[in-house]
Structures are given as C-alpha cells and as structure tokens.
Amino acid sequence: MALIALLIPLLFSVHQILVRFGSREVDTMSGIYVSQIASTLLFLPSIVNPSLDREFLGYMLVAGILHFFAARICFYHAISRIGANLSAPLSATRVFFAAILGIFLGEILTLRVSLMSILIFAGIVLISRPSGEADYVGVTLGILTGFFTALSSFLVKFGNAVEYNPLFATFIGFLVSTALMTPIAAKNLSLKGAKWYFAAGITAGLAHFVRYVVLKDLPVTVVEPITSAYPLFTVMLTFILLREREVFTTRSLLGTFLILAGIYSYYLQ
Q1: Which of 99, 154, 226, 252 has most Cβ atoms within 10 angstroms of its Cβ?
Q2: CB 245 within 8 A of CB 83
Q3: How many C-beta neighbours within 10 Å does residue 9 have?
Q4: At what angle do helices 7-22 and 72-82 cross, to 10 degrees?
Q5: Exposure of 14 by Cβ count < 10 A (0-12 exposed, 13-18 middle, 19+ buried)?
Q6: How far apart are CA 38 and CA 72, in angstroms?
C-alpha cells in the first residue's frame, strides 16, 4: 500500500507539468475552468452514494471553494508566472499553515513547528529571488495556495466528523467551484490547448482518489510525508521535460531543499 501511495506525489507532479504545458497555449482562467470540469466529471459517479446532511454539506462546500476554486486559481497562475518547479515547493507550505492554524485552535507551539517555520521561511526567501528580477506576485500566489489548502483541510476534518463520505465531498467541492468559475471563464473562454488542462484536471482528481484509498489502510502520519514529496518529483520532471522554460539555479534548488527539510522536520517524532 505504501508503494501505491507513491502515486500521489507523482500524479500531483504530472498535474503541474501538464498545467505548465497548457499555460503556453491557453489563458490561465480558461485552463482552470477546463480542469475543474474534468475533475468534476471524474467524481460524478459518487452521486450514487450522496450525503445530504446540511452541516456536512456546509463544511464541504466551503472547503471545496477554498481548495478547488481559490487555491487552484492561485496555483495555476503561480505556475504560469514562475514555473512549476518553484510553485510546487511554495504550495507545499500548506503543512506550515496547517501547523500554525492548529496553534490558533488550541494546539501547542512545539520545537518542531519552530524549526519548520525557520527552514520554510529561509527556503521562501531563496525561491523569491532565484535569479534576476523577482516575481513577488507569483511567489505570493504560490504561498496563498498553501494557505487556502491548509484552511480547507481543517474544514474537511470538521465535515468528516459529521459524516464520512470523502468521494462525494470532493465531488461537491469540484461542482461548486466549477459553478463559480462559469461566469468568470465563459466570457473569454478559449479551448485552444485545453487538452493539457483537461488532462491536468483528471490527473489531480486521480491523485485525490488514490489519497483517499490509501488512507483507509495507512495512517495520516505515513501518507502526508509521502504526499509532501511532490515538489521533488516536480523538480525532476521539469528538469527533464521543461528545462529551457524553468528556473534552475543554486538558490532555487537550495530553497526547495530547505522547504522540504522544514516539512519533513515536522513529521519527525
């Protein structure tokens, strides 16, 4: 099962590569919309086992908007501006934000959280200016991706406490996000090169599905560190497939390493 779990970071990384390819051919908002439609269709079969509890639906609707609407908009725009290999480690700061939000919800600030914060902050500083002129908008969008995703995770946790139906919850999240994107993207919708974003939506959806499957048999403390390895996969894949379009400098690679070191220091017992 642990080997199957390795599909999660790999699929997320492939998803980011596909978005990068798509950003060369179609505007980002059209791409986001196409990817959301693809993800929604992938989880459509979950309607055969719906959960109609109002509290459950409320949590999952807001969680879906934060993750599949706000975070996806931020992430796709970050990839189009600064590349996949820099956006991936920045979005992985969700672990940091989850820990900080946990403190506000009553958890104790530990040495692990402090160490993680220092390492991640140092990594962000390096990635913010990998070479030449800094793109602070792209960097901020990457970090906001992590924040919105972490906030969404807490709402999912609250929703799961009401009723556990993760596949239908994911479908609801994608459905409402697609509905919200419709009036935004429909005005200037372009389908040129949309195949990349459609494939990205399917790939990201499959990653979420595999994550739910392995969480049945593996503890979160095993699955989350494996999932958090996706920036490493992304760096390797972009180096192979998009080397001429991505930023590969000593600063950017060291920044990625520091962020990953910070994330994994949080999981050390």
Answers
A1: 252
A2: yes
A3: 22
A4: 60
A5: buried
A6: 14
Tokens at 84, concatenated: 């996949």
Q: What pLDDT sits at residue 210?
A: 87
Instruction: Tell me the C-alpha to C-alpha distance, in Å, between residue 143 and each of 124, 130, 216, 221.
Output: 9, 16, 30, 23
Instruction: Give the whole-angstrom CA distance, residue 245 versus residue 236.
Output: 14
Burial of residue 52 (CB within 10 Å: 0-12, 13-18, 19+) is exposed
The one-letter amino acid code at 97 reads F
Place of tokens 């999240």: 173
Determine contact, residues 144/84, Cβ cutoff 8 Å: no
Q: Supply 185's token pair.
A: 């993207």
Splitting the chain (269 residues) into consecutive groups of 10 residues, what average pLDDT does each group show?
A: 80 92 86 94 94 93 94 93 86 82 69 77 74 79 92 86 89 94 85 87 90 73 74 83 72 80 71
DSSP letters for the chain: -HHHHTHHHHHHHHHHHHHHHHTTTS-HHHHHHHHHHHHHHHTGGGGGS----HHHHHHHHHHHIIIIIIIHHHHHHHHHHH-HHHHHHHHTTHHHHHHHHHHHTTPPP-HHHHHHHHHHHHHHHHHHSSSSS--HHHHHHHHHHHHHHHHHHHHHHHHHHH---HHHHHHHHHHHHHHHHHHHHGGG---TTHHHHHHHHHHHHHHHHHHHHHTTTS-HHHHHHHHTTHHHHHHHHHHHH-TTTS---HHHHHHHHHHHHHHHHHH--
> Are 80 and 28 spatial neighbours (Cβ–Cβ below 8 Å)?
yes
In angstroms, rounded to a whole number, what is the distance separating the alpha carbons of residues 182 and 65? 13
CA separation for the pair 209, 215 (Å, rounded) = 10
